[in-house]
Amino acid sequence: MKKIIRNYSRFLKLTSDQYASASQKNKVKCKRGCYECCTVGFFDITLLDALHLRESLKQVPPHIRKRVLDKANEQLDLLEKKGAFSREDPLLKSLKAIDSISRRSAKMSCPALNETGGCLIYEHRPHICRIFGPTIRGKRRAVHLEGCGYFTRDIPEADFPILSNYKDEEVLLKAMFTKAGKKRKREVDTIIPAALTLDLKKWL
Ligand code: SF4
User: Is 45 in the pocket of ligand 1 (CB under 6 A)?
Assistant: First the structure.
């Protein structure tokens, strides 16, 4: 599994580089100081993102790691108290489950966000954190990734080939499930606080 996580790390770096070039070319950059998307509740991330995040956390300085983990655990305690999430069943298996946790955590910020809007795990952040911002459009202005709405310009798919990016991600996800002994890829996700604090390998 370590090899798959290493390959995923490479995929994430490549994604960031391609996205940075596309943003520069199309002159679309997040507004300085804006971190709204990190403060409006939990979105879903894949199990591979989760395993990668947990593994990468070992590279983060101990005092930062403790801070992020304490916050994540505090948030999971609160969500469990509200009956919105369970550490015993940490997977999101449907759109309904994703919508529900997103709604019920809407006032929570990511546990990795610091007071000044910085990401404490920036080098290791999940896939979606690297590509979210302006809308990405394909041919005939088809929306391939809905952006945050603050942008008046889009990124054309020709500059950031998001469909092939998703395909590469699928290959790695499939490899992860195969390695775990599953015959096919399952549509299961989780949230960042669970990814940081729980060993999700056993849920594969
Ligand atoms: S991991 Fe970083 S970029 Fe992603 S939501 Fe959390 S603070 Fe924001």
Answer: no
pLDDT (0 to 100) of residue 18:
96
Q: How far is CA 194 from CA 7, 107, 117, 191, in A?
A: 22, 17, 21, 6
Q: What is the mean pLDDT of each run of 10 residues along the chain (204 residues)?
A: 95 97 93 91 96 95 97 97 95 94 96 94 96 94 92 94 96 93 86 96 85
Q: Supply the pTM of this predicted model.
A: 0.91
- Which sequence spans correspond to the domains of the chain? 2-198
Q: Report the alpha-carbon distance of residue 87 to residue 25 in Å, rounded.
A: 43
**Distance from Cα 122 to the centre of ligand 1, integer Å:** 7
* Residue owning the nearest CA to atom 3 of ligand 1: 129
**CA 184–ligand 1 middle distance (angstroms):** 29
